[in-house]
Design goal:
0% helix; 16-stranded antiparallel beta barrel; 395 residues; mainly beta
């Protein structure tokens, strides 16, 4: 779930670095000192509601709000050999309140799980040989909240074709996670027991992609992923109610193989219209199959202002281990009542606005771009959400 409101325009003052002056007699000059390329501030406010909470066995409130802020800083330099070095640092902070998580203790009005903070920094470094058209990149990341800790790493290699119209990329990612085993209070040895254990969850993903400029108006991107997970793949506070009224903890297999395949296309209709389309097919060995179709049409209304209406349709089958409230029996080896794993369709539509004034946003020269987006999401499991986001680019 992605969410976003803005705090900290003042943070940009920390990045008012003096870029090295370009010599007047050299239009091809490339700085060999690390300099600021751009800073991006992204914030959002997200709110959802529904009545299919997995915490209470597929019934009950899904109400949640989330305020998210992230800052992304990109620095570049050219080495003595002419290679381009890019260092990218991002730090994100989410604060959320969740009525459904509060129901881990059915008697509580305000448990420790009713609100939480997630912090997620990441650092990436890339080296691009512009002459040969090749790029090597590596990165690390982490995500920390009360009941979840994740550490990630990735490496990638990209190679452009000889005529620079195509580019092939191979990427590998790994995430090593620890899940805190916070069980519902009625299933603990004692309701006041806070001696939570932990369980590991590992994710490994390989990705291949190929981008092609077909002509001056048409571009294509093909993506194929292979993702494998092992370890504790459920959540310990997701209840499952059996037909006999007994309550259990969600139990899912400890392995999962996922295969997403996607294609993205952009078509430029003159100088003022772009049609961007995306389709993804997904399947896994839990029996879930899904289709995603997405379209966005940026329209340039003036040299500095554009609007981008967008729409995404998504449909999936349910995993073979899903059943609703009080539908599982003791004969089921694996069981979940998490409606994210059920059969459903969803719609997400909204509008984006992009403003790039010649003299800078608010008349400030280095505030290069302001973007606003609003999206409304509905799901056939009776869940809906809204998100408002703002992004500012400083160059």
């Amino acid at each position: 779930m992605k969410r976003i409101f803005i705090t900290g325009f003042a943070l940009l003052s920390l990045f008012r670095l003096n870029a090295q002056t370009k010599p007047a007699d050299s239009t091809a000059y490339k700085s060999t000192k690390l300099k600021l390329e751009e800073v991006n501030l992204i914030s959002s406010y997200y709110k959802q509601d529904g009545d299919r909470s997995a915490v209470t066995g597929g019934v009950g409130t899904e109400e949640l709000t989330d305020v998210s802020n992230a800052i992304d800083v990109k620095l570049i330099k050219y080495g003595k050999s002419g290679k381009k070095h890019t260092l990218d640092l991002e730090v994100g902070l989410d604060y959320y309140t969740s009525a459904s998580s509060d129901k881990i203790d059915l008697q509580a009005n305000s448990s420790a799980s009713s609100a939480d903070i997630r912090v997620y920094p990441s650092l990436s470094y890339s080296v691009e040989n512009e002459e040969k058209g090749s790029t090597f990149a590596a990165g690390i990341s982490s995500s920390t909240e009360f009941d979840y800790q994740s550490f990630g790493g990735n490496v990638s290699y990209s190679q452009k074709t000889k005529n620079r119209s195509g580019e092939f990329t191979a990427k590998f990612q790994a995430f090593l996670d620890q899940v805190k085993l916070i069980t519902p209070t009625e299933l603990r040895p004692s309701p006041d027991d806070r001696s939570y254990g932990t369980a590991s969850r590992n994710t490994f993903a390989g990705s291949l992609s190929y981008a092609q400029i077909v002509n001056k108006n048409f571009q294509l991107l093909f993506i194929a992923d292979l993702i494998t997970q092992n370890g504790y793949l459920g959540l310990p506070f997701h209840r499952v109610y059996f037909t006999d009224g007994s309550v259990h903890i969600e139990n899912l297999p400890d392995k999962r193989l996922k295969i997403p395949l996607g294609v993205r296309a952009s078509y430029f209709l003159g100088d003022n219209f772009i049609i961007r389309g995306y389709y993804r097919f997904y399947t896994d060995d839990w029996g879930l199959t899904s289709h995603t179709a997405d379209i966005e049409v940026p329209v340039k209304l003036s040299p500095v202002f554009s609007l981008s209406p967008f729409y995404r349709y998504y449909t999936q089958t349910g995993v073979k281990y899903f059943k609703g409230f009080q539908e599982h029996t003791a004969a089921d080896e694996f069981y979940t009542s998490n409606y994210d794993l059920s059969k459903f369709n969803s719609n997400f539509l909204g509008m984006g606005m992009k403003y790039t004034p010649l003299k800078g946003v608010f008349g400030l020269k280095h505030f290069h771009t302001l973007e606003l987006r609003y999206g409304h999401y509905t799901k056939t499991t009776n869940m809906l959400s809204n998100i408002v986001s703002i992004a500012i680019k400083y160059k």
